[in-house]
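Run log, item B.
One chain of 140 residues. Sequence copied directly from the ordering sheet:
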Amino acid sequence: MKRTASAQWRGDLKAGSGTVSTASGVLSQSPYSFRTRFEDGKGTNPEELLAAAHAGCFSMALSAQLMQAGLTAESIETTCAISLEKGPDGFAITESHLDLTATVPGATQEAFDKAVHNAKTGCPVSKLYNTNITLTSKLV
């Protein structure tokens, strides 16, 4: 299985701009620029897209882990924050932090924690990232 997306850029780094699109059409020439990445401009940026990918992948992986434990989530709410920091060698993504709140009827804290851990380490996007992945979770 392969999924594709494309990006187009025109101009220099600060004054230029571009668009990103996905084959599915969910993103279609969505704007991005220096301002949307490093300031407060309107549009998306690579880190926001990475955060969405990690939150979505982790949520699905958790659902699968819960299913294997005989549990079904009523809701899984995951927010991801990607940290982009400037270091001596330039910019780098230094952390992906997942913040989870889930409602899982009948789940014990132990079963929930095990499923969360397995989802965090087993999620394909987690495996892709070469950075520190942190997580806070709350079972409600």
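Observations after the first pass:
- The beta strands are 5-10, 17-22, 30-33, 75-87, 90-103, 132-139.
- The two ends are 35 Å apart (CA to CA).
Flagged for discussion on Thursday.
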